[in-house]
Amino acid sequence: MKKSTFILLCITVCGLTACSEQKINEWACGHKMGQMRCNNAIVDADKNKEYDKLKKYLEISANYGNPKMQAGLGAWYQNDEHGEKDYQKALYWFEKSAKQGNHHGQSGLARLYYQGLGVEKDYKKAFDLYKKSAEQGDMRSQYHVGYMYAKGKGVQQDYIQANEWFKKSANQNFAPAQHNLGISYNNGWGVEKDYTLAFQWFEKAANQGHASSLYAVAEMYEQGQGVEKNLTKAKEYYEKGCKAGSQSGCKKLELVKKKISNQ
After folding, report:
1. How far is CA 192 from CA 163, 187, 189, 197, in A?
2. Arithmetic mean of pLDDT, 151-165
3. What pLDDT, in 10s, does the model give residues 14-33?
4. What's 256's DSSP letter?
5. Could you give the domains of the chain?
6. CA 145 → CA 108, 154, 201, distances in Å?
7. How far apart are CA 225 and CA 209, in angstroms?
8. Which of 9, 44, 74, 148 is most solvent-facing, going by the fewest CB within 10 Å?
9. Helix or strand or coil: residue 171?
10. Contact between 145 and 167 (Cβ < 8 Å)
């Protein structure tokens, strides 16, 4: 917001008396000309863990009609981070946001329908909402569309379509989508089986710390599948996978250590 606009805003809100920054931010969240300032105030409040301010700004902007903030308020009630989990309120705000075509609102509402949170479980509605969000480029929604195609949930099972959506998400560096592409190439689901490509996709996800992909990379190094056999590398990735939470990786680690010691 320009300095001249800010001064005008102060006069509008407070007249010629002193006015707190919070009061100006609250005014901004309820008016078209202040939405950029409101967004910055929300970012700052979240960063500084000033959650009372954060919720206040979200509520004002959401009631004003800002679809992004409506989705944000929906997420507030969907999660338990602030101790105010309320799926009915989450549903209310996600619906308002989704009706305005906001991809955050669409994906949030899709999750409620997918899991049956605050609403009857409906995979078809979940799929349609995820797809609308995915078509706007949301990488997580692209992954969910791919997953639902792969599992035949809410849509007829189609591995070719699943891989197309996984690839869209994977190209945005979303690790779960990269992992699922690795699975597809490893098993020949909707694509020609190709262990080299499977390894490459698993490795991309593993480099982001994805536990299942760390295990997959380790296993392929151990077996020499899609990559030259290398027990030292296998041990390295099993260790990383174990630390990332892969119980299978912890078990296999001990076996690979024995193989190395017996060489």
Report:
1. 12, 9, 7, 10
2. 98
3. 554 456 888 889 989 999 88
4. H
5. 20-64 (no CATH), 81-166 (1.25.40.10), 173-263 (1.25.40.10)
6. 14, 10, 19
7. 21
8. 44
9. coil
10. no
Are the C-beta atoms of residues 105 and 75 closer than 8 Å to each other? no
Tell me, yes or no, if the pTM score tops 0.85: yes
Instruction: Report the 10 Å Cβ neighbour count for 43.
Output: 12
- 190 pLDDT band, cuts 50/70/90, is very high
Please compute the mean of the pLDDT values over residues 161-178 and round it to a whole number. 98
Task: Read off φ and ψ for residue 259, nearest 5 degrees.
Answer: -60, -45
Q: How far apart are the first and last CA of the chain?
A: 68
Report how far Cα 153 is from the mean position of its chain's Cα atoms. 19
At 256, the amino acid letter reads V
224: left (phi over 0), alpha (psi -120 to 50) or beta: left
| Nearest in space to 42 (alpha carbons), one of 59, 58, 27 | 58
Q: What percent of the chain has pLDDT over 90?
A: 82
* pLDDT tens per residue, range 65-116: 999 999 999 999 999 888 999 999 999 999 999 999 999 999 999 999 999 9
Return the pLDDT at 1. Answer: 47
Residues whose CB falls within 8 Å of the CB of residue 254, separated by 6 or more in sequence, listed in order: none
Q: Compute CA distances 180 → 56, 59, 90, 185, 260, whole Å.
A: 40, 38, 29, 9, 30
What local confidence, expressed as pLDDT, does residue 3 receive? 46
Residue 111 CA to residue 109 CA, distance in Å, equals: 5
| Single-letter amino acid code for the residue at 115 | Q
